[in-house]
Write a structure and sequence with these properties.
α1 packs antiparallel against α2 (about 45-80). This protein has one domain (about 5-89). About 90% of the residues lie in helices and about 0% in strands. By secondary structure, the chain is an all-alpha fold. It has helices spanning about 5-40, 45-80, 85-89. The chain has three helices and no strands.
């Protein structure tokens, strides 16, 4: 296995990591921003007010995008496992 193939596998792994994590991170970011603006406008400083909506939104995203995320990860794992014989030779 050449160094270029190793770097390509690493790059592909990072790409899939970002692809799978992006929906959860983006939703948590948007919900946190909206809640922070609401807290600043109303001057309510409650810690659970920022935590609970993020958890609810994250669970909703997992319910909607979870099957796609699992399929993406399984396909990536399958491609990595199928590449093992080529890496050994």
């Amino acid at each position: 296995m050449t160094p270029q193939e190793v770097f390509a596998m690493g790059q592909n792994g990072l790409y899939h990591l970002l692809l799978v994590a992006a929906p959860l991170l983006l939703v948590a970011l948007v919900v946190g921003l909206v809640v922070s603006i609401f807290q600043a406008a109303t001057q309510i400083n409650e810690a659970t007010l920022s935590f609970v909506p993020k958890v609810i939104a994250s669970v909703a995203v997992l319910a909607v995008a979870g099957p796609w995320m699992m399929t993406t990860l399984v396909d990536y794992l399958r491609s990595i496992l199928m590449a093992i014989p080529r890496a050994v030779i």
